[in-house]
Specification:
Layout: E1 10-13, H1 19-37, H2 54-57, E2 62-68, E3 71-79, E4 89-96, H3 105-116, E5 119-125, H4 130-144, E6 148-153, H5 155-158, E7 169-176
Parallel strand pairs: 4-5
Antiparallel strand pairs: 1-2, 2-3, 3-4, 5-7, 6-7
């Protein structure tokens, strides 16, 4: 049965018990990125991802499942990491499974997250991921009513002791004043 474009999403807080599920889904997240990053499939046939455990262990991090009719549709991972400037929230990772992409699910999930967490935000996308850049530009423009900055930063500009091997990013900074 085909899912409706306007189905209500549920953002469910993920706990440390959900960490293995998020980490398993992260393999699909990395697989999706191969479309524009050109990464090779590992010999094992299993894509690996950065360990997301810190999203469950640190007080200033938040993890959520995106669900449709109790089915996993993706995840959202928030932190307070400063990319360019100090923010209240940074969209650490945002992933919607292929089955649910281009159906409005990601837009609903993003709006709901911004509604729950007002304040100064940062969202970054790899410039090679044209779909994500277009998606975030549209959503951020809508949420901020056109009041945002968009900056390209190279790998060198983003290198820090805590992130010695970053990717170039397009970074959006904006404010969410109140619930949307």
């Amino acid at each position: 049965m085909k899912k409706s474009l306007h189905q209500k999403i549920i953002l469910q807080t993920a706990t440390i018990n959900d960490y293995p599920t998020i980490q398993n889904m992260a393999r699909f997240y990395v697989y999706d990125r191969t479309k524009y990053m050109g990464w090779e499939c590992p010999e094992t046939g299993l894509f690996e991802c950065v360990d997301f455990k810190h999203y469950f262990e640190k007080q200033d991090h938040q993890a959520f499942f995106v669900k449709i009719d109790n089915e996993l549709a993706g995840f959202v991972l928030l932190d307070k990491i400063k990319i360019i400037e100090k923010v209240d929230w940074n969209m650490g990772e945002f992933f919607i499974l292929a089955k649910f992409q281009s159906k409005g699910i990601g837009s609903q999930a993003a709006r709901e997250i911004f509604s729950r967490f007002p304040g100064k935000w940062s969202v970054a996308a790899m410039p090679e991921n044209l779909g994500a850049v277009k998606f975030w530009r549209r959503i951020v423009n809508e949420i901020s009513k056109g009041q945002f900055t968009e900056v390209f930063k190279t790998e060198k500009e983003l290198t820090t002791p805590g992130n010695p091997d970053p990717y170039a990013m397009i970074i959006f900074n904006f404010n969410v004043i109140h619930s949307i």
